[in-house]
Write a structure and sequence with these properties.
single chain, 200 residues, alpha+beta, BirA Bifunctional Protein, domain 2, two-stranded antiparallel sheet, 6 helices, 8 strands, 18% strand
């Protein structure tokens, strides 16, 4: 992204005060991981594969696209979303291709599968990044300039003094207890073990 923007500025290709929107679609459902030497999910394993169960059963997994989408403005991703899978048989098969057996899927995602079995409707959505939209409108290069409580490089919020040590009263109210590892105390050497002084 940074290289593209630098080249665009140097070649005078960027139109000032113009907003160009673009939908990014047809994300691959799977990719091949060379380290693991197997097919893995490319992004969101809970997305509906394009073509449904038939595609999972008949197509090369690396040719299957997912119903996932992003909206981009001037090279900045504003929102991501997907049409979600809502059928147990598709979920089992999708995870099987990525190397997960039915017992693993049932163990990890049993609650979701139960919802599917009771008739979850087709569903999907998109999550807009309002802070990114404001960043573009305000012509700011960094999202920290438009976020209400930005964090610094150490993931601290100086305005809110967070993270901060909780008081005993706060911990009690939240029914939390801090259990720290025991301190290791180094044993001092007895005076008699001191090395003898060298004779002159």
């Amino acid at each position: 992204g940074a290289a593209r923007l630098k080249l665009g500025a140097e070649l005078d290709l960027i139109e000032p005060d113009v907003f160009r929107l673009c939908w990014i679609v047809d994300f691959p459902m799977y990719e091949f991981d060379e380290k693991l030497d197997q097919i893995v999910f490319s992004h969101n394993p809970f997305s509906m594969p394009q073509g449904g169960l038939e595609a999972l059963n008949t197509k090369d997994p690396l040719e299957i696209n997912a119903y996932q989408y992003d909206i981009v403005c001037n090279g900045v991703e504003l929102s991501s979303g997907a049409i979600r899978n809502h059928k147990p048989e598709i979920m089992y098969r999708a995870f099987e291709i990525a190397g997960y057996g039915p017992e693993v899927v049932e163990d990890k995602f049993g609650g979701m599968l139960n919802a599917f079995r009771f008739g979850a409707p087709p569903h999907g959505g998109i999550a807009p990044g309002v802070d990114r939209i404001v960043m573009l409108l305000a012509d700011q290069p960094n999202i920290r300039e438009v976020v209400a409580f930005p964090m610094n490089q150490q993931a601290q919020d100086p305005m809110m003094n967070a993270p901060h040590e909780a008081t005993p009263e706060q911990l009690k109210e939240l029914h939390l207890r801090v259990v720290l590892p025991p301190k290791v105390v180094k044993a001092e050497k007895p005076a008699g073990d001191a090395a003898p002084a060298a004779e002159a």
